[in-house]
Each structure stands twice: as C-alpha cells, then as structure tokens.
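My current task is to audit a protein record that another person submitted. My question to you is simply how this chain folds and whether the tokens agree. This is what I was given:
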Amino acid sequence: MTTMLSAPVRPVPAAAPEPRWVKPSVAALLLSSGVLYLWNLAKNGWGNDFYAMAVQAGTWSWKALFFGSLDPGNVVTVDKPPFSLWVMGLSGRIFGFSSWSLLVPDALAGVASVGLLYLAVRRISGPGAGLLAGAGLALTPVAALMFRYDNPDAFLVLLLVAAAYCLVRALEHASTKWLVLAGAALGFGFLDKMLQAFLVLPAFVLTYAVAAPVSLGRRIGQLCAAAAAVLVSAGWWVLAVAVWPVANRPYISGSTDNSVLQLAFGYNGLSRIFGGSHGGGRTFTPPSGAGPRAGTAGLTRLFSGEFGGEASWLLPAALVGLAAGLWFTRRAPRTDATRAALLLWGGWLAGTALVLSYMSGIIHSYYTVALAPGVAATVAISTRELWRGRANFAARVVLAVMLAVTVVWSFLLLARVPQWQPWIRYTLLALGAAVVLTLLFGTARLRRLGPAVAVLGLCAAMLGTTSFTLATAAKAHTGGGPTSGPSVAKGHSPGIGTGQPSAALIGLLRTTTTKWAAAQTSAMQAAGLALASGRPVLAIGGFSGNDPAPTLTQFQEYVTDGDVRYYVAGGRGGFGGRRDSGEIQSWVERHFAPVAVGGTTVYDLAKPVG
C-alpha cells in the first residue's frame, strides 16, 4: 500500500499517451459547471445589494472603482478590499450595468476554479483524480451559491486555487518562478477578502518546505521570495490608499482610523476570530433576532445548522482519507508526490476548518466555500490512491469507511429537510451499503466488476451533495446572508436588508439631477434606492451606519452646495447606528419638513423650513 501511495514529485510525463476519455470528460465537467452556474442567473437580481451598489458606483466613476466606494461621490467604501468589485465593475463598464454583467464574472470564476483544481490535482494524481476533485468542488452546495452571487468569495476561491496550482508547478522542479506566482495570487486574495486568503498559508509553506526537491537553504530562500511576492501584490493598493490625500479619497469603512491595515487586522481580522474589539475593530451588538446565524463555536460547528448543508457532505471522508494517506506514506521519501499533495490540500482543509470552527466574531455559513477545494481535492487524491491499492485489504477497509461515513452523513443532512425528496436519502443508503459490502467481502466480484463498483460508489457518495447543489441553483437568492439547500425561505438574513422601495419614491429620485439623488443612513437601505432608481445615493455611515462618513459638517456642506436633494428616513445600520448618523438625521428633522412619498418619509433638502 505504501508503494502505491509513493512517487517522486514530478509532472505528468508529456510523452505519455492520454486516454481518449480524458478530453471529453474535462469538456463535460467544464460545460456542466458553466450551465450550473450560469443557468437562469438573472433570477438572483442584484444578489447582495451592498456590493451591487459599489459595482454600480464603479461603472460611473473610475475613482470609485479603484477604492471600492459605495457611491460615485466617494464618501465611504465597502468594508472589504475591492478586487472582486474591479472585475464586476469592468464587466459593467464593458457590457452595461445589469444583473447579468454583475453576476456572470462570479459564475465564470467558478468554472475557472473547477478547471484549475482539475489541473492542479491531475499533475500529481492523474486525470481521474483531477476530474473527481473538479466535480467535488462544482457539486458543493455553497459553491453553487457563491459562484452565482456577487459576494467576494467567488474570486477568493479562484485566487486560492490558482495559488495552489502554481505551488504544485513549483514543487515539480523547485521553480522559483512558480512559487513567486503562488505568492502573487495569495496577495491578490488579500485584496479580495483580506486575512481569509492567508488561512492556507501554513499549508503552502509546510508543503514546499517539506517536499520541494532542493536543499533546505534553497527552499528557505525561495519561500522568502514568495513572501515578498505576497507583500508586493497585496501591498501596492494598501500603500496607494495610505499615501492618497485623506481629504481626496473615501473613508475606509469598518476601520477606526480610516486605514486599510486597521480594517484588515481589526474588524476583518482579529475581531472576526476572537470577537469583540480585538485588534482595534468596533464591537457590534446585533439587535435581537438579527445578525448571521453562527452556531456554537467548536469542532461541531461545520456539521451543525446551516453550516452542515453548505460544505460538509464530503468532509468526514476527507478527514478519513487524509489520515490514511499520511499514514500509508509515512515512510516515503521526503519529496513523495502523493504526500506533498495531501499536505497541501489536507493542510488547506484543516487550517481553514479550525479557524471557521472557532471564530467568535461575525461569521456566515457561506464562508465555508473556502473549504470546498481542500475537501474535494483531499477526497479525490486519497480515493484514487486507495483504489489503486485495492488489492490490499487495508486499502479496501479505508475506502469502505470513507464511503460509509459519507453515505451516513448525507442521509442525516437530507433528513434535516424530511419532506424534500425523501427517496434520495434512501437510494444513496442502499447504493452505499451494497458497495461497502462489496469492498469488504466481495473480492472476486471486485476484480471482475471493478469499474461498475467504482461508478456505483461515486453515485452513492455524490448523490446527496449533488441534489442539494441543484436545489441551491434552482432557488433565487438575495440579501446579505444567503444559504444553500432546498428550504423555501432563503434570502435576507434577519435584520439585514429591506424590502423594495416604492415606485413613487423611485420615480421621485429619477427626476433629480444633483450629485446625489438622496441620502439615507446605512448602505443596506441606500443600496436599494440606488439600484432601483439608477441614480447615486449617499449611504450615510457606510454598511452599518457606524462609519464617520460623512460627518455632520460635511453633510451640511453637501446640502448647502446643492449636491444632495432628498433625505430618506427609515434607514438604519445592520448593527446599530453611530452618533454622526444620528446627528445628521436630527439636523435634517429640525431644518426640513417631512413629506410622505409612497409610504416613506422624505425630506426635500432644497426647501428648508422657516
């Protein structure tokens, strides 16, 4: 068994004839992934209005696109770096701003992620394992959710998989060039979702430090070069924001001192992991019944509640396969290819899973999309190697255990929605039981019917996650906290987002010619106005209404200069408001008369009272 799992780090030989089934199978994988992610995509509308508002602003203003501003007047940014907004904004500029131009880049990022994962796994474990890894990623429910959505997570996955592919290439001949490219991809991942991109770094460093076919000193030097690439690719935008005159750029939303680094290590960093205000981030106390449904921190979080249905379908099998693979390769040479692959993808899985499991700050279940490539690749690599060694009883036992835990866990996940297609869970249970028994006790049949057994085993393992994925893609998802699966009520997280603004209010905003048609507290409310009217709206206080942008003095100047026409009442932050926002509202109420427009209170800022 150890022999079957051991091979030196090297590329797939270029001269080796490729089986005829490979190219059609890869084409089918990519085509089916494209159909899954692109079919009826427009039903998701603007997806997350918050990011859609920033993309809309980027189609009006290059400066807003560069900073990730919420409005073309560049008052305040989104609370994330702007990489994903750059791609979606450029799409909107080229094809016109619409639901399709907004969401198609994310869907294509999904197809590219599947393709790159196939290539990365194939180089060490062959095309069969590559196809299984690509299919595992494509058919993870949370992947179908995020690759059809405008959150930053789609591009985070693409950049991380691209980095892993470059690392695999670097391992083949200890290539500094490919290792630097891996670092550059991780750096751009930071510009997409900050420190979450670095959760895979320990696995990447460990893999190269252990398995690269070169001296230790050379490995350390190359890793330092890769670290420099990370700093340069992530730091150029951070430096640009830092040296840009503060008075001439938007406020960095979510930070306490208007800096990107404080945002990265505070609100989007230590505060996410430890909760509270670690790292200088603000402490948000969600109102009763509001906020993301985080579950209880601990090792069971990823298997419980909404987290379980997102990406845990193959997670038990991945853990079993990882442990078995590392055990069977324990005596292999340092540069063993299979062990290197298991360190890479298994380390990705373990590091990301532990952080997501124990995070005490703001967390959403869709964050688990970052787990999906690690889970899919680990399962594919270990399954392929164990299947190659199936003449060994120990290998068959591990395969049987992997399949059994997958089938049982899929049955339990499907049982959480008992009224939805109950035949699926009983079918996979029957298939799984038959294949497990054949692996353990049907040695002669396994030799004769090996391909058929393999196909039935894959069907049993993948039926649950595939059904959930298809149900996810069939549903419309909008709002700040989308979740996957067939449940009827999927959409806004409680307390985040609002209903559609009235036609009368939208009609009123469309008649304006000012810099901002209106202002409203917090982006989650202002975004609906901007997207529906096609006119710029000032989101006071950024996402949550907590940012000091604009200040009362600045807002008064906007009104005096005739830059903003209406103030729309009723807006509030996702997690409460800030004093600046309350002062602005109080000032407006004292100096302007309210008028009801389509059931909404509106103040005409061009007509002061008295």
